[in-house]
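hi! just following up on the protien thing from before. the input was this:
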Amino acid sequence: MNTTTEFAVHTGDRCTAMEVAGAALRQTGHRVESTGGTITATTGSRTLTILLGALVHPSREFRRYELSTTVTGTSTTITLRHSGHGTAVSGGGIGAGRRQSAWQQVNATLERALRSAGVLAAHPEHRPF
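and the predicted 3d structure came back as:
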């Protein structure tokens, strides 16, 4: 399963890109916290997910993502990665399928939002780690 996606954005628009990404995540029901160039987005209940695994309704399943920026010369990359893998084994195959589906939805949401805002410099690059 892919756990990291990189979005190339225009360097002059990196703050705007992070604001757009945060707003897009909020619109999809994530709680968003921003600290010094990093965004942490969470959704669902960690406790319910740990206790009930795959029995938790998908909308209540705990998920946590982190977005950070890296500036290298004239290029800027926003990296989206899974964070908080403490519940990674909850739910077995069903939970893994749900996490993969949620990951794909978050990626698509961010790409659409960044593209619509005009700050995306290239297609996202998927790098499994």
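The chain is about 35% helix and 30% strand.
The CA atoms of residues 49 and 121 lie 37 Å apart.
cheers
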